[in-house]
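Good morning,

Attaching, inline, the backbone tokens for the sequence recovery test we're adding to the shared suite. The designed sequence is right after.
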């Protein structure tokens, strides 16, 4: 790990070992098997031919890689879910790591207000879908509000957003699922706007467009794309390496071939 290509490389290389030496050999034991990079979740059925110890040994046959395998149980965690089998049903619950710092957007941040609203909407929707039991959803939502308060947000600002999201979730449960009709984005007017807390907001821009150009131009609708300006992180934390002279790929390959011919 440490480079962008490392996860993809690990997925491909272990995937080959997985398909050729694990899944075919233990197909009768694995009622369900899914892997995300280095996290595996499955439902195991033991039999006299292949037991659990053989499966764990087979996982570790791939180079120097060693897997941390938990004991067989009716309850386990996979990524951000705690999954349990009870009375022939699968129940899910939100799982959060003990070392999670919950560094949510603070109230004095220069983010657009819609960004914070979208964050709360996304979190609560995720909690609603993850928790089978209503009590678990209420508990994780209560913890979420407490963590927002610890980040400096006020209860007066949070509660209206929470109530708005809960109403939205209720409407989702009542409406039948239908395919969303999307308009033709090829005939849309796009306005790119860099956000600033003291600048004109999206609502005002849309109102100006509706009162002046809407219906008089050739566009079906208007989309406002808001981007963030440069911040301190961009100035202090450079992620791009400096471009050195004669450092492109073709020059490097030429030098490697030259050195190889010399040897």
């Amino acid at each position: 790990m440490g480079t962008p290509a490392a996860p993809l490389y690990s997925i491909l290389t272990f995937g080959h070992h997985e398909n050729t030496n694990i899944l075919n050999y233990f197909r009768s034991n694995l009622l369900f098997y899914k892997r995300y990079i280095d996290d595996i979740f499955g439902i195991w059925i033991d039999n006299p031919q292949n037991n659990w110890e053989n499966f764990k040994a087979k996982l570790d046959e791939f180079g120097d890689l060693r897997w941390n395998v938990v004991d067989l149980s009716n309850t386990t965690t996979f990524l951000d879910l705690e999954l349990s089998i009870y009375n022939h049903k699968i129940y899910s619950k939100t799982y959060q790591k003990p070392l999670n710092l919950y560094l949510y957007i603070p109230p004095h941040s220069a983010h657009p207000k819609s960004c914070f609203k979208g964050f709360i909407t996304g979190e609560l929707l995720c909690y609603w879908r993850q928790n089978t039991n209503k009590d678990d959803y209420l508990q994780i939502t209560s913890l979420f509000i407490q963590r927002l308060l610890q980040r400096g947000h006020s209860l007066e600002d949070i509660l209206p957003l929470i109530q708005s999201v809960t109403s939205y979730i209720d409407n989702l449960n009542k409406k039948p699922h239908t395919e969303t009709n999307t308009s033709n984005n090829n005939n849309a007017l796009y306005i790119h706007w860099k956000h600033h807390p003291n600048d004109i907001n999206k609502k005002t821009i849309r109102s100006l467009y509706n009162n002046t150009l809407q219906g008089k131009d050739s566009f079906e609708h208007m989309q406002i794309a808001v981007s963030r300006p440069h911040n301190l992180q961009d100035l202090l934390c450079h992620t791009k390496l400096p471009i050195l002279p004669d450092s492109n790929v073709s020059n490097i390959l030429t030098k490697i071939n030259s050195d190889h011919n010399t040897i």
